[in-house]
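(Structure overview)
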Amino acid sequence: MKSYKVDARWSTISRDDIDAYIIQRAESGIKASTTNRELASLSALYRWFQREGLLSDNPCKYESRRKVTEKVPNTIPGDELRNAWSHSSGLARVWIGLLATTGIRISELLAMRWEDIDFTSNAIKIHGKGHKERIVYATAETLTELRVMNARKALSGRIFNHQQRECRAIIWRALRPFCQAKQLSPHAIRHTFATNLATKGVNVTTIATILGHNRIETTQRYIDMAQADTRSVTAQYSLI
């Protein structure tokens, strides 16, 4: 196998040298993300060479970089999440209920206003990333608990006056006694919500719309997880 050059001049390094470097880094156990950061720095240097008219080629173009393995979204088993919700109360119960039935982000949860909720249809207008709005639907039970909890307050303006760190801590304390997942966070509940939809056969475009994803590729991982679960269950319970 070709080895990459050592102590070579910048002008003599070729695409083959970069590819050999990538292979050797991989065989040494270096993470793909680490190698890609190194290549990004080298590519920036070569772009400077090109702007200055010192070199005409950039051997570290993006196509050379290693494929980074997609991380599997952290989820919480549905029965454990339901058990934690049923044993919680107050803010924790309302927050878990909203997150588990809508799949919204923690930032979207804390930005909710009373004017965004239609208690007749259980619809909530969500102000997502990039100032994009979408409609999600919570359960009547959760929205009723939310309104009862705030019965003595004016039902206008921002609903929650909490920081994300405080919200995460309250949810973590509610989930911890009942859930065994590695990460017990609002985003884990979002992953669980999305994976549940995919497992039930909801198409990727609909899931992307509900979650407020800009790219279908971001949503596709939930479909892939659901298909993997289907294969596992089919193999486990095969009749022959």
User: Anything to note?
Assistant: The CA atoms of residues 223 and 229 lie 10 Å apart.
